[in-house]
Structures are given as C-alpha cells and as structure tokens.
Amino acid sequence: MSYMLPRIATTILATALMLVPFSACSDALEPRPIASIEVTVDAPFGMSEDEAAKAKALLQSKQGDLFSHVLFDLDLKNLASSYDQVNPSFRFEDGQLIIKLHLSTKPMIRGIFWDGNQMLSASSLSKELDLSLETPFDRDLFIKAFQKVKEAYIKRGYFESNLSYQIEQVEPSHEVDIMIHVEEGRPGYIKDIILEGFSSKERSDLLGVMQLKKYNLLTSWLTGHGLFQEELLEKDRMTILSYLHDEGYADASLQIDLQEDPISRRLIIHIEAVRGPLYHIGRISYEGNELFSQETLNTHSFIQAGSIFSPEKVRLSANAIRDMYGQKGYIDTQVDYELILKEDSPTFDVHFAILESKPYKIGLIHIRGNILTQDKVILRESLLVPGESFDARKLQATQQRLEAVGYFKHVNVYTVRNTDIPSSEEAYRDVYIEVEEVPTGTVSLFMGFSSMD
C-alpha cells in the first residue's frame, strides 16, 4: 500500500501544499517506524548528490525513529524555503515506512529584462529591484523586490503606472529569465490645486496644511513636493473634511476630480466642498459632577449653547474638565461625552458624563534610566514634592523642564498607584521619571554650554 501526493505544477501550489499538515493520513502513518528516507534532487549536472546530502541533513525526521506528522510538517516547510519544488511520497514494506522526497533546486537567474520604461532607466529600476544575476530565484523574495519597483514609480508621481512580470524557463539549463513590462502612464506633476466652495481664508488655511503641493521646477527636486500620490490625497481629504466639520458642517463631503492640463499635460486637482447644513450647539448638560458646579465647568468649556458645532472644541472641553480635576488631585477622573442630534434642527446637544475619582497625594519619586546624570540633577527640575496634593499640571511641566535641559533623548513622567498604602488611608500615587540619556559626546556639549552649570 502506498500514499502518493500529486506532483505540483507550480512553486506556489507546492509551497501551499507543504504548509498543509498530513493529518488525513497520519492515522495510517503513525506510529510506524521509518525504515529509510530517500532523497533525490533535480539539480544542475554534478550537484545532485551533494544537494541530496544537504537536504537530508535538514530533516528532523530520522531513519529508525517513529514517524511524526508534526516533525514531518516542519521538515517540508524547511525544505520548501530552500527548494523550488518538494514532492513527498510514502510506501510500506514489512510494516515499516519508506519515505521518498523528490526535490528540485531553485533555478538561477540568467537575465533581467525591462520593457516599456521610458522615464526611469533600466539601471535605476535594477537598483530598486536589487536582485543579482547568477543567484537562486526565490519567488517570495522576488515579489517583495518587485513591489519596491512599483513603489518607486508611485513615489515619482506615476500614479497610473502598471507593472507586470513573466518568469521564463531557459531550456535545457536550470535557469530563468525575468521579464518585467512597464506601463508608465501619465506623470503626476501637479500643475494646480483648485479648491471650490471655500472662502479665501479657508483656501489659505487648507493649502498651508495639505500634503499635496503644486510642482515647482526649482524646488520640487529637493523637497519632493508636487508629485501626486494616492495616499497623500486621502490624507488631504480627511484634513479638509475635519476642517469643515470643525466649522460646523458635520455632513460635509468632497467631490474630487483629477484633470489633465491639455497643454502641459500636468495634473489639476479639483476639490469641491459640499457643505450641507450648518450645525450649532444646543443644550450642554453634565452628570456626576460634585466637586465643580455646572457654572464653573461652563466657564472652562470651549463650547457654549448656540455656538457653531465643532467636534474638536467638544473634545478640548472634555480635556479641560479633566484637567480641572487633575489640578485638584483627582487625577483618575474620567470625562466622556455624548452628542445628541435633535430631530427637528441641525443642532447637537452635548452631554458630559463625569466619573470623579478620589484625590491623590504624591508618594515616592522613582528615577530610572540615568547613568551619567545624578538623581539630584533630575530632582532639581521636578516640581513634584512627596506628600503634596497632586497637580496634573506639575506632572506635565516636570517632563517639559527635563526635556529642555538637553541631557536626555527621551523623558517620560508618569504615575503608578502605591499599593503599599492600605485603601482605608489617604490615596497616594508614586511618580516615575524615566529618562534616556543622549550619547556621551552630546552630553558633554550640552554640559559645556548649559546656563545652569
């Protein structure tokens, strides 16, 4: 009785099959002893025996061991990463298992040929591909390299580019030629960006923050600006929509059209705003606030009843409320908000839900990561004093002061609940100051010119 797997026509199918466990026949194969493992390799003349010995050394399944489909799966995966095709077969003799593995070595790359490329030379594309002749052809590595070539065209503004490839077997040698066909399409040099339905101030604001820019013959070669990229257009679309939403147009949408200038053949990006109704803030309500009155919360809010609706100002208002509590030591206070759309008008009621925490005091101050800088130098910049009521502003200010000293590449100041204090007593939060010092030479430079020193 024998178990045979069909010969795989392509490398992709072979690799896929190698990744499938042999659970279907594992009951028949386990726990049979392995009588022998025979390995044959299709390789260039004179190399078959060496390749067979090398492949056999990679196997964890050994002659005399009991067959394990788990180990054999791993063997097939390892072989599939080193060989172009892996075809296993099994047969039984006198109750023992004989395994045959027929392998094909990866072909060598004889040549790489380019067709259709005009704006980018074959030499520059070959550098992007970064594959050498007379090296084994690995399909997975090639696909990753081929993707880099496609990205090179996109980065240079050829947004319509289309690349394809063929792998041709060179008979009778064990070699392949790689044929890459390029359809470059239009170059995406941006002649103009037209914003329609915007005021002059809005155009100025948006053009200043958009990532897509007009192409400038004198500066674009240096800055990289002026080339069209789909991902940049998507980022700009989100930026413009966020801008309109914060102006109260919560239903705003954009119509984007790419046009070609008939004379220069450069790209004109036409963006039209469809604003929809203007939304306002209706009723503002609070829930869970005991420490601060509604009037006090309103005075620190960025929104007022009747004002134009802005998602950003609502978010800033929630942060401002959280900061008010943090300044009094209530650093775990949570502030959430809900937007409630009225049915009969473009108006959002805003409801803040506040979950007040208990007040905290400053516990121990721990310093980590400093090797050259003494603790006292770091503590000198700290505004936090153990035993005092927590003030979230001082936590942030301490981090800013340490960053400004110039000794540290990174600074992180945060709090951790002190579990050594019983919950019935006053609540404390320990402060951790973690720093990463700049390289020694940079530290010496800062130390030499520090006004504090």
What would you say this structure looks like, in words?
This protein has 453 residues and is an alpha/beta fold. Helix content is 33%, strand content 29%. The protein has helices at 11-18, 23-29, 48-57, 69-82, 122-129, 139-155, 200-209, 220-223, 230-246, 294-299, 311-327, 375-381, 392-405, 440-449, and strands spanning 2-4, 34-42, 85-93, 96-104, 108-115, 162-170, 175-183, 190-196, 253-260, 267-274, 280-287, 334-341, 347-355, 361-368, 408-417, 428-437. The termini are far apart.
List the helices and strands and how they pair.
Layout: E1 2-4, H1 11-18, H2 23-29, E2 34-42, H3 48-57, H4 69-82, E3 85-93, E4 96-104, E5 108-115, H5 122-129, H6 139-155, E6 162-170, E7 175-183, E8 190-196, H7 200-209, H8 220-223, H9 230-246, E9 253-260, E10 267-274, E11 280-287, H10 294-299, H11 311-327, E12 334-341, E13 347-355, E14 361-368, H12 375-381, H13 392-405, E15 408-417, E16 428-437, H14 440-449
Parallel strand pairs: 2-4, 5-7, 8-10, 11-13, 14-16
Antiparallel strand pairs: 1-3, 3-4, 6-7, 9-10, 12-13, 15-16
Helix pairs in contact: 5-6
